[in-house]
């Protein structure tokens, strides 16, 4: 129990593999070397849910991306070295049999060296004593500025201590850099391991959506569908949803971040589900909208076809050199034409577009990066211009139409209707791959699945 090879978690760990993390650290170290910089990251903290109970721990995204550890309070330091190599130092909670009985197994410093490839590891309590020595001589220290006050404070203490001794030969770093940007620019192009994790997350997400399509019946409740989807995620080994699952039927679907999920599914309503499974702390993000009873009404179908056409037109533009703004503009074109032809707004498509009247029914942007975070890191603009897609980028395309039940001056059959169609798209060398293609989105294909389940 006290040996260094103690494994606090069954199954392959770190996941995806130690090699993947070593490769990431080499890449990040190379970029630090160019800047004569060291990097300090924090594992994050347990968050109180209420009184003395806590939410399940989820490590800081940049931290986990770099080392695969799931250690609250841990600090890791990445130090490029002159010879082209680097050193990776970790500070973690020490093994403690008595505490582990209560709050779970720990790796301890030995386990972090053994399993996670750290060059040195120390108990957390030694951070203040060791950090100045580690940062000494680098020009810049990168850390996620402002994200973790405890880490900000620890780095400041280290710098203060070095400044106090600089007349005796120590050279404190002169600059602080924001690790968020540094790591974001690494994370935006998915490496092989990241892409494998994301594919797994999206595949499991797809299974959850399919299970929901097969199970939903009028009279069931939104929470039952939520439970079913998340059961599907968990039973396939996902750590759970990567964000609060949105399961909204009828008018609830017109609330963009509806997470109450407690209404009955009405016969004749369209159910909107926006849910994604997490795998290796990468998240899928799929939205589908379909009729609870298996058949769209003519109005629902017309509105759905507009959103689907926007989704398909937007995805067509997902290729190297294109960008998120171009996709958004294309989706707006299709949505505005639809709003005019369905008479949701009694104006021409051009007027709806120019005067931004579409905002009444489509009030959000169309895309975001996807990865470790569901709204992933990485810049959206470079030099004031929308960032051009490159192979390895992953983004969503998610146009929608939201027509609240109390909307005046639209044909009755459109009221209380929310539709969004969201896919996860990988940019490839010559175009794209729809990672979420496993969940059908054509009307006949969705109606067939639901219809078959109802027979
Ligand atoms: Mn999304």
Automatic annotation (TrEMBL):
Domain Aminopeptidase P N-terminal: 16-152
Cofactor: Mn(2+)
One Pfam match: Peptidase_M24
Cross-referenced PROSITE patterns: PROLINE_PEPTIDASE
GO biological process: proteolysis
EC annotation from Swiss-Prot or TrEMBL: 3.4.11.9
Domain of life: Bacteria
Keywords: Aminopeptidase, Hydrolase, Manganese, Metal-binding, Metalloprotease, Protease
GO cellular component terms attached to this protein's record: cytosol
InterPro entries reported for this sequence: Aminopep_P_N (IPR007865), Creatin/AminoP/Spt16_N (IPR029149), Creatinase/aminopeptidase-like (IPR036005), Pept_M24 (IPR000994), Peptidase_M24B_aminopep-P_CS (IPR001131), X-Pro_dipept-like (IPR052433)
A molecular function (GO) term: manganese ion binding
Catalytic activity: Release of any N-terminal amino acid, including proline, that is linked to proline, even from a dipeptide or tripeptide
Top EC group: hydrolase
Entry's family note: Belongs to the peptidase M24B family.
Name of the protein described by the UniProt record: Xaa-Pro aminopeptidase
Lineage of the organism: Bacteria, Pseudomonadati, Myxococcota, Polyangia, Nannocystales
